[in-house]
């Protein structure tokens, strides 16, 4: 792929078709600064058009995923002149995060979150826009905004999409913190590991499955899933049928069906069994 953007808050490593993104501000439990938001946005913009990258794995350094927004950025915004709407520095700060998390949510790549330690506020929102979320035994999840006198403005819609309005109300309005087991029960994460070794095993299994699935078909499927509930069902199914017909006629469709008949892995699966 082309050279990755230079990042000061993120560590980036390419391993085959996977980009590993490590949030690297361990001294503040990986709190999300404006710089980090900009760097995450630049990274996801870069890989969106790169067909060699099929999955992005996000995790945090130092035992924490992300503890939420950076208080220093908020203090800095408070020191600026404020106005209404887009001129307001708090608006710009908050909205920049929302644009980034929407970008991650709509990425055509398979986004995998490895959640450990603090998964709070913006970090909680980032976990909720992953396609696959694996929690370690130390993970604690929460929406503490209301207990701080603010609101989960940009993450709330994604939390509702993830776990439904009823559970989102309870978490947001009580400012609760929950453990990995309850997060799995609610559907915030899909799997809970009991050790670092098991985290690596579960991640390896997920990435192996990514390799089995055709990249273009995966991207089209993800886009289709995001349209559910936002369009009329009849129109959505009409469009989906058109996408299906195009997929069948595509190079991927031809290779996939031929591989099935010949009882061999498709080319995009590489050397997996």
From TrEMBL:
<dbReference type="Pfam" id="PF00378">
    <property type="entry name" value="ECH_1"/>
</dbReference>
<comment type="similarity">
    <text>Belongs to the enoyl-CoA hydratase/isomerase family.</text>
</comment>
<dbReference type="InterPro" id="IPR014748">
    <property type="entry name" value="Enoyl-CoA_hydra_C"/>
</dbReference>
<dbReference type="InterPro" id="IPR051683">
    <property type="entry name" value="Enoyl-CoA_Hydratase/Isomerase"/>
</dbReference>
<keyword id="KW-0413">Isomerase</keyword>
<protein>
    <submittedName>
        <fullName>Enoyl-CoA hydratase/isomerase family protein</fullName>
    </submittedName>
</protein>
<dbReference type="InterPro" id="IPR029045">
    <property type="entry name" value="ClpP/crotonase-like_dom_sf"/>
</dbReference>
<dbReference type="InterPro" id="IPR001753">
    <property type="entry name" value="Enoyl-CoA_hydra/iso"/>
</dbReference>
<dbReference type="GO" id="GO:0016853">
    <property type="term" value="F:isomerase activity"/>
</dbReference>
<dbReference type="GO" id="GO:0008300">
    <property type="term" value="P:isoprenoid catabolic process"/>
</dbReference>
């Amino acid at each position: 792929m082309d050279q990755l953007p230079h990042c000061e808050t993120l560590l980036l490593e390419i391993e085959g078709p996977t980009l590993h993104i490590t949030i690297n501000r361990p001294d503040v439990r990986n709190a999300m600064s404006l710089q980090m938001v900009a760097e995450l946005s630049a990274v996801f913009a870069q890989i969106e058009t790169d067909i060699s990258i099929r999955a992005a794995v996000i995790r945090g350094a130092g035992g924490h995923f992300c503890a939420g927004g950076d208080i220093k950025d908020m203090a800095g915004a408070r020191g600026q002149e404020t106005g209404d709407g887009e001129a307001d520095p708090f608006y710009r700060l908050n909205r920049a995060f929302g644009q980034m998390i929407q970008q991650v949510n709509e990425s055509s790549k398979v986004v995998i979150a490895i959640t450990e330690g603090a998964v709070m506020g913006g970090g909680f929102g980032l976990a909720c826009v992953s396609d696959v979320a694996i929690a370690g035994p130390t993970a604690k999840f929460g929406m503490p905004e209301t207990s701080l006198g603010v609101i989960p403005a940009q993450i709330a819609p994604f939390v509702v999409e993830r776990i439904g309005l009823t559970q989102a109300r309870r978490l947001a309005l009580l400012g609760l913190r929950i453990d990995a087991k309850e997060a799995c029960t609610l559907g915030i994460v899909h799997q809970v590991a009991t050790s670092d070794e098991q985290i690596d095993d579960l991640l390896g299994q997920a990435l192996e499955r990514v390799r089995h699935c055709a990249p273009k078909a995966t991207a089209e499927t993800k886009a289709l899933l995001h349209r559910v509930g936002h369009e009329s069902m009849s129109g959505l199914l009409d469009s989906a049928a058109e996408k299906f017909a195009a997929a069948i006629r595509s190079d991927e469709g031809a290779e996939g069906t031929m591989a099935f008949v010949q009882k061999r892995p498709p080319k995009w699966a590489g050397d997996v069994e």
